[in-house]
């Protein structure tokens, strides 16, 4: 592993909405291409990459259920939306020369491979990017939970969540002017303060498997590579408490470091 790399294998989660651009529905091909280029840069550093892409730009189970579709059926429709996004990302990555495999939790042989854990690991070892489609394959879950699940199964060193902002805030910084930004949080702080990073099931799974979650902006050019090399701006969520860190630092000779 090259010296300045902090992570050998990572999972990148992006929401379906990240693919919208200025549209209200579907994908903006230029946005898909730009995110694919972010992935290409990190792949070129020698990091093994897998991805989970949401489906909210096309269909959300809850919205379908609100319109009278049975919830489980609506969730399957949402899962199919993630397959569409995954295929678009595969195409964009391969245009940039990154060999990519889509592995779906719901098998559809003619379209992509079925999800097989060992096969996914083998693909990454061979230098292929892997996209996990169809979430967990189960209704009543989200692609955030799928991301935490696959990151755990793949033995990823970190789960990176690419969002519209550069970390976790106390409230939506695009709506609330004085929202506080956090550099570090614990899994428990995210859960107890009900911070809208990922759903509780995803946070708990990452916590149980000790996978740090790094929240960063996928809209900054080169942002993904910066985070992977430890330079970028992000919020890190781990078991360690910032309060505890400050306490330990204050006991060090010379007091806390700035
Ligand atoms: N979904 C599901 N099970 C999963 C993952 C996703 O049923 O394991 C469905 C659910 O209906 C969800 C939709 O797929 O609303 C799209 O996923 P999500 O809302 O997580 O996408 P994002 O918000 O990340 O774009």
Which secondary structure elements does this structure contain, and how are they paired or packed?
Blueprint: E1 9-14, H1 29-44, E2 48-53, H2 61-66, H3 71-95, E3 100-104, E4 113-114, H4 117-125, E5 129-133, H5 143-153, E6 158-163, E7 168-169, E8 181-182, E9 184-186, H6 187-192, H7 200-208, E10 213-217, H8 223-228, E11 234-238, H9 242-251
Bound molecules: uridine-5'-diphosphate.
Protein architecture, described:
This protein is α/β, with parallel strands linked by helices. Helix content is 38%, strand content 18%. It has nine helices and eleven strands. It has helices at residues 29-44, 61-66, 71-95, 117-125, 143-153, 187-192, 200-208, 223-228, 242-251, and strands at 9-14, 48-53, 100-104, 113-114, 129-133, 158-163, 168-169, 181-182, 184-186, 213-217, 234-238. A nine-stranded mixed sheet has the order 4-3-5-2-1-6-10-11-9, sandwiched between helices. The protein is globular and about 45 Å long. The structure holds uridine-5'-diphosphate.
Structure, briefly:
With 258 residues, the protein is of the alpha/beta class. It is 38% helix and 18% strand.
Total number of β-strand segments? 11
Oligomer: single chain
Given helix and strand content, the structural type is alpha/beta
Number of helices, where a helix is a run of at least 4 consecutive DSSP H or I residues? 9
**pLDDT averaged over residues:** 93
Instruction: Flag low-confidence runs.
Output: none
Main β-sheet, spatial strand arrangement: 4-3-5-2-1-6-10-11-9
Bound ligands: uridine-5'-diphosphate
The percentage of residues in β strands lies in 15-25%
Rg for CA atoms: 18 Å
Euclidean distance between termini CA atoms: 30 Å
| Overall spatial form | globular
Q: Specify the helix fraction band.
A: 25-40%
């Amino acid at each position: 592993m090259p010296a300045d790399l902090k992570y050998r294998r990572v999972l990148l989660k992006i929401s379906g909405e990240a693919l919208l651009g200025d549209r209200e529905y579907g994908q903006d091909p230029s946005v898909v291409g730009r995110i694919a280029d972010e992935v290409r840069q990190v792949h070129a550093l020698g990091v093994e990459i897998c991805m989970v892409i949401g489906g909210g730009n096309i269909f959300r189970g809850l919205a379908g259920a609100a319109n009278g579709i049975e919830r489980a059926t609506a969730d399957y429709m949402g899962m199919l939306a993630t397959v569409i996004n995954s295929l678009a990302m595969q195409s964009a990555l391969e245009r940039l020369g990154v060999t990519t495999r889509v592995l779906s939790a719901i098998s559809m042989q003619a379209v992509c491979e079925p999800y097989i854990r060992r096969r996914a690991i083998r693909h990454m070892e061979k230098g292929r990017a892997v996209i996990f489609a169809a979430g967990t394959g189960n209704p009543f879950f989200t692609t955030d939970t799928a991301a935490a699940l696959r990151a755990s199964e793949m033995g990823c060193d970190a789960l990176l969540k690419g969002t519209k902002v550069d970390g976790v805030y106390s409230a939506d910084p695009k709506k609330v002017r004085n929202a506080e930004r956090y550099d570090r949080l614990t899994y428990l702080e995210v859960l107890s303060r009900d911070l809208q990073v990922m759903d509780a099931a995803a946070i708990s799974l990452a916590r149980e498997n000790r996978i740090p979650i790094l929240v960063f902006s996928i809209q900054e050019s080169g942002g993904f590579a910066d985070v992977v090399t430890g330079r970028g701006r992000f919020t890190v969520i781990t078991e360690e408490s910032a309060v505890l860190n400050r306490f330990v630092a204050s006991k060090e000779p010379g007091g806390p470091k700035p």
